[in-house]
Design a protein that fits this description.
The protein is an alpha/beta fold. It folds into 2 domains: 31-106 and 184-271, 3-Layer(aba) Sandwich (Rossmann fold), CATH 3.40.50; 114-181, no CATH class. It has 8 helices and 10 strands. Strand 7 (184-188), helix 5 and strand 8 form a beta-alpha-beta unit. Helix 2 packs parallel to helix 4 (166-177) and helix 5 (196-213) packs parallel to helix 6 (224-230).
Length: 271
């Protein structure tokens, strides 16, 4: 692989010089709008006729049982899955995001953190900056250190991912998602695999980032404590009807008369 001219060591990807398309970005109340979206491929339909929006500044959760399409919906929202069965997605004023078009207007933390084991934590956080900016190596390093400090990992810059605990890896991945100063971040199962104390601490971090940075956060999760603690609003997907069956504040949803919704929040079986 060709060394990056912005890299302080060989082996990093060469930064692309593409610029995001000059589409209008209006300061509207909704930062995400999904209209009549059907998700699936070939003859498979996961969800159909989906309509919802995410308001600026919300902590928005995507809820539902296993196999209902939560993580797949996230992939549609960030442009990793093409819309082939109809519908429209607008994110931060950009319609139907295509990651090949330029700098995405959001950051992403995937479920396992997706840190590169051969890179230090600092180098992992620097990757988006090397990919999308022309900043000097010193400036990139300074930003990476600042983002790590922001998530409580001041001393982790020179460590490797295998030297970190599960919670620290999630924090490092969040730091990387914030490297380009997005106004919106997507988090896929951020508490997965964490003990209750570490999970609660991560929830506190997400709330702090939401409140101090005005960050809009979209989270895929099934962790009830996290849902009640940090979510402003959310939607619930249903596998059987292939539709959104509930939308609103989780504390209100937990009082729903719909047994499918009530079962999720109270973890009751269908029988």
């Amino acid at each position: 692989m060709e060394p990056s001219p912005l890299s302080r060591r060989p082996g990093l990807p060469k930064p692309r010089k593409r610029i995001a398309p000059a589409l209008p970005r209006t300061k509207v109340e909704s930062i995400i709008e999904v209209e009549d979206l059907t998700m699936g491929w070939d003859d498979v339909v996961l969800q159909k006729d989906m309509n919802f929006d995410v308001k600026r500044g919300e902590v928005f959760t995507i809820l539902g049982g296993s196999g209902c399409g939560k993580s797949t919906l996230l992939r549609y929202l960030i442009g990793l899955e093409p819309i082939t069965k109809g519908g429209k997605i607008t994110v931060a004023g950009l319609r139907d995001i295509d990651l090949d078009d330029g700098l995405p207007p959001f950051g992403v933390m995937f479920q396992a953190g997706a840190l590169f084991g051969s890179l230090t934590v600092g180098e992992n956080v620097e990757l988006p900056l090397e990919e999308w900016t022309d900043l000097t190596p010193d400036a990139i390093a300074a930003i990476a250190r600042a983002k790590l400090k922001l998530v409580g990992l001041d001393g982790a810059y020179d460590k490797f991912p295998n030297e970190l605990s599960g919670g620290m890896k999630k924090r490092a991945a969040i730091a990387r998602s914030l490297a380009l100063e997005p106004e919106l971040v997507f988090l896929d199962e951020p508490s997965a695999g964490l003990d209750p104390i570490t999970s609660s601490e991560l929830d506190d971090l997400i709330l702090t980032l939401n409140e101090s940075l005005g960050l809009t956060v979209v989270i895929v999760t099934h962790e009830l404590e996290s849902i009640f603690k940090i979510a402003t609003r959310g939607i619930m997907l249903d596998k059987e009807t292939k539709s959104i069956i509930a939308e609103g504040n989780p504390k209100d949803l937990a009082k729903s008369d719909d047994p499918r919704v009530s079962n999720f929040f109270h973890r009751r079986s269908k029988d």
